[in-house]
Design goal:
Elements: H1 11-29, H2 38-54, H3 66-85, H4 94-109
Helix pairs in contact: 3-4
Length: 134
C-alpha cells in the first residue's frame, strides 16, 4: 500500500506455507475408501501417513529448514521407489509404473496460484484460456 511499509515475505517461507496448506486441503478432500482389497487400503494409508509426516515440522529436527526439507525429501522418496522397483522383473516395466505414479503425484500437487498477479488487461477474448473465473 502507498505510504505503508510492508514486511517482505521470504519466498521460501511462502512456498513451504503454501505446501503445508495444500496438504491440509488435499488430505481433507481424500475420501477414506474402504476397500475389499487390503493392498489398496494399505497403500492409501501409507500415502496419507507419508504425506502427513512430510508436512509436519515436528517430524524433522528443529534445525532443519522446512523449505530445504521440502526440496530434498522428494529425492529420498524417489530413491526409495527406484530401489524397490529395481527388484521387480523387467517384464512388469517397473520404471514406467514408478514414472506414472510420479506424474500422478505431480499433477495432484499442482495448485492454482492467484490469477490476478499478472500484467495484462482482462479482455479474455484473445484465443486462449487463463483459468480465470469471474
Amino acid at each position: 500500500m502507498c505510504g505503508e511499509l510492508e514486511e517482505e515475505e521470504n519466498p521460501e517461507e511462502v512456498i513451504y506455507t503454501r505446501f503445508a496448506a495444500h496438504v491440509q486441503t488435499f488430505m481433507a478432500g481424500l475420501k477414506a475408501r474402504p476397500s475389499g482389497d487390503p493392498l489398496h487400503y494399505h497403500l492409501d494409508r501409507l500415502f496419507r501417513e507419508l504425506l502427513r509426516n512430510a508436512s509436519d515440522p515436528a517430524k524433522a529436527p528443529s534445525d532443519v529448514d522446512p523449505y530445504e526439507r521440502l526440496a530434498m525429501e522428494p529425492l529420498v522418496f524417489a530413491r526409495l521407489a527406484g530401489f524397490m522397483a529395481a527388484h521387480l522383473p523387467l517384464s512388469e516395466d517397473p520404471l514406467k509404473r514408478v514414472i506414472e505414479a510420479l506424474m500422478t503425484g505431480y499433477a495432484e500437487g499442482e495448485i492454482e496460484l492467484p490469477s490476478h498477479d499478472h500484467d495484462h488487461d482482462h479482455d479474455h477474448d484473445h484465443g486462449h484460456d487463463h483459468g480465470h473465473t469471474h
